[in-house]
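User: Can you recover a sequence for this backbone? Please restate the input before giving your answer.

Assistant: Of course. Working from this structure:
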């Protein structure tokens, strides 16, 4: 399971250019792989990586970890903004939102009071949510699950 999750996450990074330079995607990958390692070593092993349990576990781990990562990225950006230091590029934040971290982004916006006033950012944030649902619909359609 760990090897399968690692292959998926780093395969995505190879295929999707913005992920290669997004340092928070590396954090997300480490969290997902760490969760897979923990479950595999403490609870059960999945021998067939192509069954529905493996896919379901990957999706659950990915959604939890990407939202945690996105929340952390907003916190880092807010701290940097206050101190006048290097900021997290908006493109990186939007990439995390598109990968499923829009709930973590919404919580971080409320918690840190960050990126809530900038209208252009909010438009792109909402577009990322719509694009994620469209991508999900297309994937489910391709897999004949809809």
């Amino acid at each position: 399971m760990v090897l399968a999750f690692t292959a998926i996450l780093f395969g995505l990074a190879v295929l999707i250019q913005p992920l290669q330079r997004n340092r928070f995607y590396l954090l997300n990958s480490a969290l997902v792989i760490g969760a897979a390692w923990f479950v595999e070593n403490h609870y059960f092993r999945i021998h067939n990586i192509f069954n529905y349990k493996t896919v379901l576990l990957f999706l659950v781990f990915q959604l939890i970890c990407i939202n945690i990562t996105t929340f952390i990225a907003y916190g880092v950006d807010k701290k940097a903004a206050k101190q006048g230091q290097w900021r997290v590029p908006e493109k990186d934040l939007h990439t995390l939102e598109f990968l499923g971290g829009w709930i973590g982004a919404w919580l971080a916006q409320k918690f840190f009071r960050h990126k809530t006033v900038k209208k252009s950012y909010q438009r792109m944030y909402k577009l990322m949510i719509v694009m994620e649902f469209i991508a999900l619909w297309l994937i489910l359609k391709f897999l004949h699950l809809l």
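That completes the design. The chain has six helices and no strands.
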